[in-house]
Amino acid sequence: MAIFHYKAYTERGAVTVGTIVAEGLDAAVDALYGSGLTPFETYGVADRTAERSGQPSAPAREAETSVWKRELVQSNRFSLKELMAFTVELASLTNSGLTLDTAFRIIAGPGAAPKTARLANGLLKDVLAGLQLSEAMAQRPDVFPSDYRAILAAGEAGGVTGQVLKQIAELLARRLEIRNKIASALVYPMILILMSLVSVVVIVFVLIPSISPIFVDAGLPLPGILHFFEEVQDNWLMVLLGVALCGAAVFLLWGKAKQNPEVMLGADRLKCSAPVIGGLIRSREAGGFARALGTLLVARVPLMSAMQTARALVTNRHLNALYEGAIKRVPEGTPLHRAFEGDGLLPPASLRLVAVGEESGQLGPMLIQVASVIEADLQRRIERMVGLLTPALTLIIGGSIGGLIMHVMSAVLSINNLAFQ
Fold first, then answer.
1. In terms of domains, do 142 and 178 share one?
2. Is 118 in the same domain as 43?
3. What Å distances lie between residue 108 and 39, 114, 300, CA to CA?
C-alpha cells in the first residue's frame, strides 16, 4: 500500500486536495471516482521525494513511460462509431435529469475507455471553467464536426441541450449505417482491383523478363503493349519520379485553388451540374439541411436562427448561396415551401410535405420526416450505384486483364515462329 496526494473536483465543481491510501496509482484514481471526486492531479509521496533528490523513482519512471505510450501509441481521434456511442451516453444521462458535470464524471468513471475518459474529463474541466458545452467541443474540432457543434449551440440557446443531443445521436447513427452499407458493398470491387494489380505486376516483372531475351536475340521488339510494359520496367525510376512530380504539382495547384473563393465556387457549381454526382450532392445537402432545420425547430429555436444555422451546414458553396437567397425571402412574408421553389433545393414532393407542416403547425416534425425520405432515397441511389459498380468493374478489369494475357500468349506462341527463322 502507498500514500497518494490528489487534487480533484467535487460534485459542485470546487477543488479539493487530500491524501488516499491505495495499492497503486490506478487504484487510487478509481477510488477517487468511486467517492464522487474527479481527480486531475494524483501523485505518490515517493514520487515527490525522488523529484527533490533529482532521482526518478520507479513509479515516476512508469508514469513517464505511460505518458510516452499515450502520446505516441494512443490516439485521441474518435471514429464515427465511437463518437456516436459517446453522444448516445451523454444524451441519455442529460435527458435523465443529470447535470453535465455529473454526466461527464459518470462517462469518465471506472470501465471507460482511456480516450473516452480523457475527452470527458477535458470537457468537464472546460464546462466547470464556465464554457458552454458547444464552446468546449469547439476546442476539439478533430473530434466534434462543425454540424455537430452548430446544432448543439442552437439547442443550448433554446435550452434543450438533452433533446438536441438525442437528435444528434440519431443523426450519427444514420450516417454510420449508410457508411457501413457502402463499405460492405465496396469490398468485392476493391478485391477485384487488388487482384488486377497483382496480375499486372506478375506480368510486368515475371513474364516479360522471361520472354524478352528471346525477342532481343532475334533483333525484334516485343509485340503490342508488352513493349510498353518493358519500357516501364526499364525506366521505372523515371516513371515513379514523373508520377511524384505530377502529384506534387496537382497538390500545389489544389492548395492555391482552395485559397481562391471564386475558383472553389466554380468547382462546386460544376459538381452540382454533373449528370449523376450533381443529383447526389443536392440530395445530401437537402437531407442535411432539412434534418438540421427540423431538429432545431423541434427544440424550439426561432425559425430564422434555425435556418441560418442549418444553412451553415451546407458545405457546397454554390448550393449554400442558393439556400441563402431562399432564406432571405422568408422574412418578406413568403411561405417556406414557396421560398424554396424553383431552385431545385428540395424535391417537389418534399415541398408539399413542408406546406402541410406549415399549415398544421408541425413544421419541425414534418421537416424531419422530409429529411428521412430524402436520406432514404439517397441511400437507395448510392446502393444502386455501388451495386452497378461491381459488374462494371468486373467487365472492365476482366477485359483489360484478358487483353493483356492475350498479348502475352501471342508473344509466347510467336516464339515458335522465331525458332524457324
1. yes
2. no
3. 11, 8, 31
pLDDT tens per residue across span 219-269: 667 766 777 777 777 777 888 898 899 999 999 988 888 888 888 888 888
In the structure grid, which three cell numbers stand for residue 209, read together? Answer: 523478363
HEC profile for 87-146?
HHHHHHHHHCCCCHHHHHHHHCCCCCCHHHHHHHHHHHHHHHCCCCHHHHHHCCCCCCCH
Torsion (CA) 294, 295, 298, 304 in degrees, nearest 10: -60
* CATH number of the domain that residue 167 is part of: 1.20.81.30
Q: What is the pLDDT of residue 366?
A: 92
Which amino acid type is present at position 188?
Y
pLDDT(368) > 50: yes
3-state secondary structure of 27: helix
Number of independent structural domains in the chain: 3
Q: Under a CB-based contact definition with an 8 Å cutoff, are residues 168 and 148 in contact?
A: yes
Is residue 88 located within the same domain as residue 37?
no
Cβ atoms of residues 256 and 246 within 8 Å: no
Decide if 32 contacts 6 (C-beta within 8 A): yes
More confidently predicted of 126 and 18: 126
Q: In this structure, are 90 and 32 located in the same domain?
A: no
Please determine, for residue 28, whether its predicted confidence score (pLDDT) is greater than 70: yes
- Take residue 88 and report the three cell numbers written for it: 448516445
Using only C-alpha atoms, the chain has a radius of gyration, in whole angstroms, of 31
> Mean pLDDT score of the chain, rounded to an integer?
80
Distances, alpha carbon 199 to alpha carbons 122, 180, 206, 211, 244, in Å:
51, 29, 10, 17, 23
Distance of alpha carbon 302 from alpha carbon 87, whole angstroms: 24
**Which structural domain range is residue 92 located in?**
80-185
User: How far, in Å, CA of 373 to CA of 366, rounded?
Assistant: 11
CA–CA dist 89, 110 (Å, integer): 15
Cα–Cα distance for residue pair 342/325, rounded to 1 Å: 12
What is the pLDDT at residue 419? Answer: 53
User: Residue 201 to residues 120, 401, 403, 409: CA-CA distances in angstroms?
Assistant: 49, 11, 15, 16
17 touches 6 (CB < 8 A): yes
Judge whether 380 lies within some domain.
no
